[in-house]
């Protein structure tokens, strides 16, 4: 049931739904990902603050399911404002990783092809424990992309 | 080469260079953290040591501070 206090936020790829009546302020979301879920900001959800997979990971941690998400491709009608949606895209996240969306062939330092799904996040801060991928360590070390 | 020649040649490449930056090469859209976009054939070298003074670009600082292999 939709409630008129419900909110939704999208980055074009997924939409995050927030149902405040279910929220018990367990603080899980903003302890995990303050770049996206910041209760002191309005709107309090910034979908450009982290890669989609990271947002999904934290949404799934919500203990009350006040936060949920859907892929926009599952939500009809698709409102696509991207002029060339098929074009592979590289996005530099502020103070975060490099996000590859779409078709890329990714090679490691030995020239071996790495697994790449719809989205891959590559470390830019140099200290991930799962190189070459991002593991969120940039937040702990205060990495800045400036 | 024989299989899927057209398709494969159009897929952009990402190479993690040993002790160096990330190389992006091919036809893709690049969006920086300010939302500036470039599209089309390009060859870009992006910092992955965290130390560049010209982020997101590589400025060879990794040669001074070392970079994860």
Concise description?
Chain A has about 150 residues and is of the alpha+beta class. Helices cover about 10% and strands about 20% of the residues of chain A.
Overview of the structural elements:
The complex is a heterodimer of chains A (146) and B (69). Chain A has helices at 28-32, 52-59, 137-141, and strands at 7-10, 14-18, 67-71, 89-92, 98-101, 105-107, 113-114, 119-122. Chain A contains three helices and eight strands, in the order ββααββββββα. In chain A, strand 4 (89-92) and strand 5 (98-101) form a beta hairpin. The radius of gyration of chain A is 16 Å and the shape is globular. Chain A is an alpha+beta fold and 146 residues long. Helix content of chain A is 12%, strand content 21%. In chain A, the strands form three sheets. A three-stranded antiparallel β-sheet of chain A has the order 1-2-3, covered by helices on one side. A three-stranded antiparallel β-sheet of chain A has the order 4-5-8, with no helix packed on it. Chain A folds into two domains: 7-74, Alpha-Beta Plaits (2-Layer Sandwich), CATH 3.30.70.20; 89-141, Ribosomal Protein L9, domain 1, CATH 3.40.5. With 69 residues, chain B is an alpha+beta fold. Chain B has a domain at 44-69. Chain B has two helices and three strands; from the N terminus they run αβββα. In chain B, strands 1-2-3 form a three-stranded antiparallel β-sheet, with no helix packed on it. In chain B, strand 1 and strand 2 form a beta hairpin. Chain B starts with a helix and ends with a helix. In chain B, 29% of the residues are buried. The model of chain B is unreliable at 1-8 (pLDDT under 50). The interface between A and B is medium-sized, with 36 and 33 residues. Strand 4 of chain A pairs parallel with strand 2 of chain B.
